[in-house]
Amino acid sequence: MKRAFDLVISVIALIVLSPIILIISILIKLNNKGSVIFKQYRVGKDNKEFVIYKFRSMVEYAPEVASTALENPDEYITTMGKLLRKTSLDELPQLLNIIKGDMSLVGPRPVINDESEKELLKLRTEYGVYKLVPGLTGWAQVNGRDNMSTARKITLEKEYLERRSLIFDIKILFMTFVKVFRQEGIVEGSEINESYEVDKVTKVM
Fold first, then answer.
1. Most exposed: 15, 75, 132, 173, by fewest CB within 10 Å?
2. Partner residues linked to 37 by β-bridges
3. Of residues 49, 29, 32, the one with CA closest to residue 40
């Protein structure tokens, strides 16, 4: 049911949004000499890596690290990229990832396999979250998006693992539209709220 829902919604969204995708592609090319689509290896289901697609929002020479690990993100994010990231339009190419089966509409966000995400990947494996197909959006994203500690994120991802259902996915998608419209929880660089203690993970689980 979840896979059928993902396919139907993604194909329809790709068709309906194709004019916007074309316009964004042209604007990126005019704003940046690099490629329109940014490709990067991310950790997916069963901790296997896959290639994720995004609209390019950073310059070609940007470091290959998680954006939250950048000390000075403004140095690398393009003018067009700032708009794309605030509106989450840079994620639109991931509709292709969903159609391919690498991702789902809803699930834990796929992260890059580097030192900055080592703790999150370890906890995902420990609490079984790694078994889920990564999502375009997720329960953690609608409860904080970028401004969230690793402990808080894994707690919410574990909650999704236990509560997941088609109705819950639809609720998360609706909440995502609201969050994106309000541009809530967006943090660029390393200014993440780490106030949620790691030991709270075990208390919730």
1. 15
2. 55
3. 49
